[in-house]
Amino acid sequence: MRQDLRAQKFHDFRRTAVINDPSVLRRLWKWHDDHPLPTALNLWVRNWLVFPARAFSEHLKHRKDIALKVGSPDSAGDPAVPDDTLLEIRHRPGTVTLAEAEAKLRLIEGANALLVRADRGWIAQPRANYAYKGISIEEMGCRFLGYFYAYQATGNEEWRDKARYCIELLQRRMLPGGHIVLQGHLVIDFTYALAAYCLFLWSSFVDDRKIEEQALNVASILLRYQISGSQNHGIIPCYALAESYRRTGDSAFLAAASRRVRRTALRNQLASGGWIDHDSWIWYHSIITGALCKTYSILPCDLEHMRFKDRVARCLYRAINRIIASQREDGSLRHGRGEARWNGVDESGVSPDTQVVHYDAKTMRFTPADSVREFPTHAWECFAMQILIDDIDLYHLAPLIRGYVGFVTRQNVYWRFEFHTMAAGIGMHLLKTLEDHPYTKNATIRADA
User: How far is 314 from 333, CA to CA, in rounded Å?
Assistant: First the structure.
């Protein structure tokens, strides 16, 4: 029997992918990645040499797509969007009922049952990028969000108990002082932010101060952690930092969230509302949009912060308008700039198309890449929509949200089942939220009137 060599790995060594870019800056950065400087010096170099050089280089490369008049197309064909008002929702795609959305979650639960390992959590499906690399924090954190919001939508104690199980698994991975044992995905800013946010939600639900303290310990590490070059990784800690500021009033959390927004989302946003390179993909765009909204919602309306809040608001308007402009008639969202389709390679050098499976409630089977029209993520897109509803009451998006949840529910190809659990549960909650709101529960009331 042929041995699967992937099964022999338990650690990803610190290294960068092969860089084909011959520029001196990229070659120096690769050398640095393989030979890191002492921490204090490393942070100084990142903050005062690498970041300014990268920001300037990005601006030169994309300057024509950054400065455009509203309505003018950029190099990918995307129109420049307003930064002070929302676009009209163009489509009214068909949606689904809450019962249909819950049925989707139950279908996904069948796949989760195939992947669960007693008292340890869920492994990645065999074709996914973190398969055979241990159990990542996303396996617990993303499923928690799905189960938690499913419970909020239905009151079904089954989903509450599954959410509790996810929190218990997260707590077992925590070390003294706030650090977390990581497997598979070893990026601190992403995994710690997700874990802390989940702990914050659960601590409020069960009214447990000890769990809140655990979340604050994790967030305190993010408070002093470096800002990644990737914009979605650099900004995602704002979810945890914003919640920390809400609960403690400690201005250090507000300052840290503001600093990350300045270094990421406010850096070279395209006139179309998106961001450059891989951060233009709609799932990364949604992570950035949600974090922007979280930060905007905690900024005080005083003289000290108002000018910065205005800048964040303009950035957020553009980001939301990019989502509106991206929706198709069937409710789906375009993947990236123009009609670009996700066919690149991930950090493992594998095309995501080769990681997609079909699940029919009994077995998983490989889905040929040429049969996959949409790369199935959906989780962070739904999460951003939930944040926009929760934090700034953006019911203008109701038709878009209903159409998108309907599209997600009808999909039958899968990638990472933690993401699908998250999308299904949040989708249920979005439908319930819109059903209960006076602006949207009555079909005769237009949410965008």
Answer: 22
Residue 330 CA to residue 410 CA, distance in Å, equals: 10
Q: Which residues contact 364 (CB under 8 A, 6 or more apart)?
A: 111, 114, 125, 126, 357, 358, 414
Query: pLDDT by residue (tens digit) across 101-149?
Result: 999 999 999 999 989 887 788 988 888 878 888 889 999 999 999 999 9
Name the CA dihedral angle for 428, 433, 435, 437, rounded to a multiple of 10 degrees. Answer: 180
325, amino acid identity: A
Amino acid at 256: A
CB-based burial, 58-83: b 16+ in 10 Å, e otherwise: beeebeebbebeeeeebeeebbbbeb
Fold of 68-436: Glycosyltransferase (1.50.10)
Distance CA 271, CA 315 (A): 10
Supply 41's token pair. 């010096």
d(CA 162, CA 168): 10
Residue 401 near residue 447 (C-beta atoms within 8 A): no
DSSP for residue 124: P
Which among 241, 325, 312, 322 has a CA at the least distance from the CA of 286? 322
Q: CA 17, 135, 164, 291: dihedral to nearest 10 degrees?
A: 0
Closest Cα partner for 397 from 430, 438, 424?
430
Q: What are phi and psi of 99, to 5 degrees?
A: -65, -40
Summarised one tens digit per residue, pLDDT across range 198-253 is 999 999 999 999 999 999 999 999 998 888 878 899 999 999 999 999 999 999 99
